[in-house]
Amino acid sequence: MSTRTKYERLLARRAPQDERRIYNFSESFETQYGDATKYLIGAMSPVAPLYTQRLIVQGDRVENQLKTRLAVLYPALEFRRQGSVSNNTHIKFHSDVDVLVIIDKFHTLEPPQQPPSPYRGNPDQDLIDLRQNCADELKNAFPAATVDNKGSTCVTIDGGSLVCSVDAVPSNWFNTVAWSQYRQEHERGVQVYNRDKGQRILNRPFLYNHRIHSHDLPRIGVPRCLMRLLKNIKADHEKSGLDDDVDFSSFDICSLVYRMPDDLVAGIHNRPLRLIYALLVWIANVLNTPSLRGSLNVVDDSRLIFDTPTKEHGLRILFEDLKILYHQADQETSNRQILTESHL
């Protein structure tokens, strides 16, 4: 797959010049150099606010329909957002919207908390029923769209008048001990019923978003830029059709960047190619150091990043694609900082 093909695809996804917020990268820098340099800087850039707002509106449409149509059965349903759009690491045309549909019949308490009045219903069946009700009502609300109820944890609706895919995720509140003490929502979790596993799975999307934001803010946006970069590399690799999907999820990508040491990017916040060089050095270190690789947790500490044997291969694919683009950009800018075999 040629760099030109990648570059042309990325250009269609990029934010307009007056809407990009990529920590003072100069327009003269971006327009002066070649395709690989432009691709890399564009891949780091945030999605245009107007496009992001369109995604947000699609989630609101689904929420409003479910809230209205399910009001009799579930008068106190709650809704929240999770996923890349909610934490501003999304990329254009490859990010959908996740709408948590939080049931009003019960919530789960983290031990050693005990409920004053234990729930006597069947929580798993309640979430199964909520899921089916969501699927039925979404079909009624969006007759021209495709509603897919085959996923393990969500009902997906796409097409028709919707401009992006939206996942409705039936769930229940999981109230941690910390949430009961401080009432800060990032301490609160949700349980999602996984139909394939036949059990409820704990997710911490609000803690994840809180940590991404808290980590990114004092680092002047660098982590989010590098997360978008790797997500775009992954999306374009998969779009090439040369290989199967890369087994390294967006969640894994964000977690890998989140665990990147600060000293690798110190003092180079406004030097995009140096940042990419630092990211390559970090990935190479992870790939070449089994003890390090086996110690890295995802952002919310719910599991290891490399929890399956195929994750290492998936990351290596992203690394090789990024390394090629970096070398091409390095030549375009006459930068003398070259990655050697000793580094990688």
Question: Any overview of this molecule?
Answer:
The protein has about 350 residues and is of the alpha+beta class. The protein has 2 domains: about 5-50 and about 210-330, Orthogonal Bundle (Poly(a)-polymerase, middle domain); about 50-205, Beta Polymerase, domain 2. It has 13 helices and 8 strands. It has helices at about 5-15, 25-30, 35-45, 50-70, 85, 125-140, 175-180, 205-215, 220-240, 250-260, 270-290, 290-295, 310-330; strands at about 80, 95-100, 110, 145-150, 155-160, 165-175, 190-195, 200-205. Strands 1, 2, 3, 4, 5, 6, 7 and 8 form an 8-stranded mixed sheet that branches. Strand 4 (about 145-150) and strand 5 form a beta hairpin. This is Nucleotidyltransferase-like protein. InterPro entries: NT_sf.
